[in-house]
Amino acid sequence: MKIYTKTGDDGSTGLQGNYRIDKSHPRIISYGTVDEANATLGIVLTHSLDEDVKSLLTQIQNDLFLVGADLSNPNLNDTKNRVSLEMIENLETHIDKFETELPPLTNFILPGGDESAAQLHYVRTVVRRAESQTVLLSEKDEINSNCIKYLNRLSDLFFVMGRLINKRKNIPDVPWKI
């Protein structure tokens, strides 16, 4: 099987269930941005990371494939490959756990520090964009609302993990100064 099919040469693409839509449709933009976040997360995983961080990020990469699959399936009666509340709760559990290692925030901080932490902050912004685009999609088409919740929580987790990596490497948060 060849990687190219030529079926999208007219500006359309196929979805699960043999649907075809324009490549500019909010559904494609939404799950395409989820894919971008996943690819960017792959860059973070090229760094030397603590095993708990690496393991979680690898799990999130798999979860992001599921988010993309969910968003690519317009048939909400099809219950396979759907983002679940358990996935969201798992992110919350990790946020809570990692925050116990961090000092409380007293002001806004700037993204940066260790390269892997800075890249996680970048992934966070891509996830925020994916969330916004998924909200736009939900205004046009019915979707699994857990996708929005998952992306919202994921960006929070990446913020915390960026701080965590810096803390573990003894790099202080950089406060925003006006």
Automatic annotation (TrEMBL):
Highest taxon of the lineage: Archaea
Residue ranges the record marks as coiled coil: none
InterPro entries the record matches: CblAdoTrfase-like (IPR016030), CblAdoTrfase-like_sf (IPR036451), PduO-typ (IPR029499)
Subcellular location as annotated: Cytoplasm
Pfam families: Cob_adeno_trans
Domain Cobalamin adenosyltransferase-like as annotated: residue spans: 3-164
GO molecular function: ATP binding; corrinoid adenosyltransferase activity
GO CC, alphabetical: cytoplasm
SUPFAM superfamilies in alphabetical order: Cobalamin adenosyltransferase-like (SSF89028)
Keyword list, A-Z: ATP-binding, Cytoplasm, Nucleotide-binding, Transferase
NCBIfam families tied to this protein: PduO_Nterm
Protein name: ATP:cob(I)alamin adenosyltransferase
